[in-house]
């Protein structure tokens, strides 16, 4: 089933050793067909430098016995890109064996999530005027802060994600509220509500693609 998935997917032991990876994943990281027995550090891809992070994330999923989600930005075989990875614990005979992983391109995932949320919102909220995102120019710092705000992150979490101080993040949030004040935004809650109703969920900041990273987001 995993072999024929259009999404990169595979299986790794709790020690980070590949038991299987489908063609989509092998193509993504330029891995050989006989990937079984290799680790991330063995792969001819820039992701190799994050091998120890991946093992920590896998063990977190196993220890907590839950699926974790990461955002991974790396120079893959086709160039710089961002993917979300879901890592699910695999239990065999009652014992933790490793994880099953699957990846989705972040642009694809954001567009799908945005569409679903916009449909769920419907037309119940008419308190804001509708202005297309491209007509509202934001600075790169404002875009990245808004991106994480729309995904439920709090100030301290955003600060860690973008390597800034909480005070700097609060300043950007205040700037965003001021930037959107003409359309009825007056606080953090109304900023998030307005942005969700007006297309900002589908905006992926270019800043997100500039630095290789592997971040647990759920």
UniProtKB/TrEMBL annotation:
Cross-referenced SUPFAM superfamilies: C-terminal effector domain of the bipartite response regulators (SSF46894)
Q: Output the CDD domains linked to this UniProt entry.
A: LuxR_C_like
Provide any one GO MF term from the record: DNA binding
One BP term from GO: regulation of DNA-templated transcription
Please report the stretch or stretches of sequence annotated as the HTH luxR-type domain: 135-195
Q: What is the top-level taxon of the source organism? A: Bacteria
Q: What is this protein called?
A: LuxR family transcriptional regulator
Q: Which organism is it from?
A: Photobacterium gaetbulicola
